[in-house]
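Mods, move this if it's the wrong board.
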Amino acid sequence: MRHTNILIVMLLLLSATQALALPDGRELYIRNCNACHQFQGAGGIGLPLTAKKFRDYSDDYLFKTIRHGRPGRVMPAFMEMSDAQVRAIITFLRQQTKTQARIYATSRLSGDPARGRQLFQTHCVACHGTDGGGQGEGTGVTLSRKRAFLIMPPAISNPGFQAAASDRMIRQVISVGRPQSGMPAFAEQGLSERDIDALVAYVRQLGERAAKKPEVALDEPPSHVTESPYDFETTVANVKQAVVGANFRAFPDRFLEQGLTDEFSVNPRQIGIRFCNFNKLYDMLKIEPRLGVVLPCRITILERPDGQVLLVTPNLKVVAHWFNNDQLVELWDRMEETFTDIIDEVTL
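Not the wrong board. Structure tokens:
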């Protein structure tokens, strides 16, 4: 009996230790995803992360997307993360979008790719391009899209998408569409199940034809996280003072959860300080007009349950390289120094 009790205690201690060691999905998201997708999931450099989309995503699709990214486009491969860290981000996203994972069978559909090609030319080319590349070269956001497009259509021939999406998930998306992104529900447009299966088969052919591009893992994280030696209110005040002192104009504060929940449930200990220098803004937009989707600049301030205050800033050197623009890389190298000076002043 005594040995049994000892064993139970040891198991409880082990479980408690494992629970304490579980990665924090919210913090991982802020460190690695917020720079592109924003905390509200509204998107910017990266695609929007909305509940309507997540209802059709399997956790396997999300896991493979985070792990392998989209080679040749903005989404990097997070190969350095552990499986537990990737799953923690997925759990956080499920909580944020209030969605459950959808389960899809992994077997392939038996559609007619020749029929699918005809349908693709009629219904899909205008957005996804003849090769399924989304008409974008190098990034997930491009000015070459029609202004009616709310977002850049995904590159469905991309090796990352092809590896992550099951046939049945692709069929589901084609069937129900993405109304918030401008993609119609083709099941309501008169396409039969046979037609949609044919489209899926052709999408797979596009993936086979697409040039294989190597995965590029990040050498550095896309965000810098700095611990503040001050309390939350003092840190916020210091950031505003440092931003203005660096010749930027500060905009009204924005709670990170604003738009995700009702105004009474927003966590007031998590805010984003947005700021801009219009001369620098003009210089940036002359070099890279696509930057309009991620400006103004921002510093995120959040307080942990233990009272520790964190400052999160984008790693501009990393983000700049995603645009494949050498002039922008040079300019943002200088901006990175400015951000560093601001954080140094805040934490003195």
